[in-house]
């Protein structure tokens, strides 16, 4: 596959049964947190310094609904 092609969705052999819909934006909302985000579709990444009360996801994720984004909390 050339670099200019884009893949949307997951391959048929990807097991998503244990995929967690809850992100670090949904957990510990009363605390400041450092959240790392990586777009598996276009390989964009960001480190987000989320203030207490922030539940709004990464802007890239909001603008590109078909992209698969992985979030994890930094300790």
Explain this structure:
By secondary structure, the protein is mainly β. The chain is built from 1 helix and 3 strands; from the N terminus they run ββαβ. A 3-stranded antiparallel sheet has the order 2-1-3, with no helix packed on it. A hairpin with a 5-residue loop joins β1 (about 35-40) and β2. It is globular and about 40 Å long.
Short characterization:
With about 80 residues, the chain is mainly beta. The protein contains 1 helix and 3 strands; from the N terminus they run ββαβ.
Q: How much strand?
A: 25-35%
Structural class: mainly beta
User: Whole-number radius of gyration?
Assistant: 14 Å
Unreliable stretches, pLDDT < 50, 5 or more residues?
none
List the helices and strands and how they pair.
Blueprint: E1 33-39, E2 45-50, H1 59-63, E3 69-74
Antiparallel strand pairs: 1-2, 1-3
For the structure shown, list the relevant keywords.
75 residues; mainly beta; 7% helix; 3 strands; globular; 1 helix
């Amino acid at each position: 596959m050339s670099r200019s092609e884009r893949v949307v969705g997951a391959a048929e052999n990807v097991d998503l049964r244990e995929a967690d819909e809850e992100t670090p934006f949904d957990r510990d909302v009363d605390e400041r947190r450092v959240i790392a985000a990586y777009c598996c579709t276009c390989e964009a990444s960001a480190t987000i310094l989320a203030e207490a009360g922030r539940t709004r996801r990464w802007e890239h994720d909001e603008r590109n609904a078909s992209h698969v984004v992985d979030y994890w909390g930094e300790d």
